[in-house]
Amino acid sequence: MASSIGFSLTPPFFHGNTTTTTRSIFSPSCLGGGSHPLPNARRRRLSHRRSSFKTRISAKVAEKSALQYRKLGDSDLEVSEITLGTMTFGEQNTEKEAHQILSYAFEHGINTLDTAEAYPIPMKKETQGNTDRYIASWLKSQPREKVILATKVSGYSERSTYLRDNGKVLRVDAANIRESVEKSLKRLNTDYIDLLQIHWPDRYVPLFGEYLYDPLKWRPSVPFVEQLKVFQELIDEGKVRYIGVSNETSYGVMQFVNAAKVEGLPKIVSIQNNYSLLVRCRFEVDLVEVCHPNNCNVGLLAYSPLGGGSLTGKYIDINSEAARRGRLNLFPGYMERYNRSIAKEATIQYIELAKKHGLTPVQLALGFARDRPFMISSIIGATSVDQLKEDIDAFLKTERPLPPEVMSGIETVFKRYKDPAIL
């Protein structure tokens, strides 16, 4: 669908077959406060750390991998086109399994992993933090500068009060952000976070399967400037390198970028939103314009490129062993939008398309996500090394880009099933 949404399929935005894409065109209207002078004492205190950052910016393992690496927004981070998602660690995966998955990922060229203070999923007090602890025990044997570590501070929540010492409603304010970061650093056993993201906004927005904005649910929220000010403090203290958002809208991205510009505060460099063959419109309609490198230059880190596993086809036969072991059946109500909608009909169509062109469903789904001109990295989770191997192989061995006849087939299905997971 690239041509229909008006992108020029040329650098710097289109990644093509280059190993690394460097973005150097930024709009003055959106550049914001990504870089500004520090006091002399602060500059001296960070000089050693920043010099070491220069050697760790890309954290590549290119010698052993054909994966591509892409510059994340205005940052100095060059992330692999696959980011390892970790939300199953501590729930579906043991610590030993987590270590095996992490090691395989980084041995095969992945240099970025994504976690969150709320993980593992499903969120619950009894397991909260296990994901970070498993990552920390693995990190002990790894060179920290070779790992791009992304985590997330939770947004507004009346249910997950156990995440904070005071047991109150979660907000994205100074106190909550600071407590979240300090606890994450301790669990992860590291002294800095490469990318700190707001997991979901402080203000009301439709979330996790909701589609339409309900104006009656509007509520007062923490000002964007207030959120950015505490991020600035954490960056100045060397605890955070860059910031991003997740489950965010065009309005939110523009507000954060404008606040950064006006107030001279850090600019967000990334957005982590849902994107796949089954979930396209929310990003492609207008976020894609906002995030374009010639506009606000905010890089997309797409989660659920396999639609929570649905696009593998394993849930088509609900009685299959793979379906019974899948998270959509293990956790009733979880991602039910893929079970209670016409997403299954669309998935069958995509599976038939893949078969027609000699592809597996995984190759079709991940090849599609990989080739999008606005994609920086696809976040892929796996509960086994075998799953992860299949996913990495889909990136490396599937024709790049997907042939025109395959893309044409995808668009034909899309025209009939636009975002079929909407309930």
Share of helix, binned = 25-40%
Reported for the largest beta sheet, the result is: 8 strands, parallel, barrel
Radius of gyration: 20 Å
First-to-last CA distance? 24 Å
Order of helices and strands: EHHEEEHEHEHEHEHEHEHHHHEHH
Structural class comes to alpha/beta
Counted by DSSP, the helix tally is 14
Question: Unreliable runs, pLDDT <50, ≥5 residues?
Answer: 1-29, 32-48, 60-65
Counted beta strands? 11
Quick check: average pLDDT?
Answer: 87
Overall 3D geometry? Answer: globular
Q: What percentage of amino acids are in beta strands?
A: 5-15%
Summarize the structure.
By secondary structure, the protein is an alpha/beta fold. 37% of the residues lie in helices and 12% in strands.
Detailed description of the structure:
By secondary structure, this protein is α/β, with parallel strands linked by helices. 37% of the residues lie in helices and 12% in strands. It contains 14 helices and 11 strands. It has helices spanning 28-31, 40-56, 95-107, 130-139, 174-188, 224-236, 250-263, 281-291, 321-325, 327-330, 343-356, 361-371, 385-397, 404-416; strands spanning 20-21, 69-71, 78-80, 82-85, 112-114, 148-153, 193-198, 240-246, 270-274, 299-303, 375-381. The strands form 2 sheets. An 8-stranded parallel β-barrel has the order 4-5-6-7-8-9-10-11, surrounded by 5 helices. A hairpin with a 6-residue loop joins strand 2 (69-71) and strand 3 (78-80). Helix 11 (343-356) packs across helix 12 (361-371). The longest helix has 17 residues, at 40-56. The relative contact order is 0.13. The model is unreliable at 1-29, 32-48 and 60-65 (pLDDT under 50).
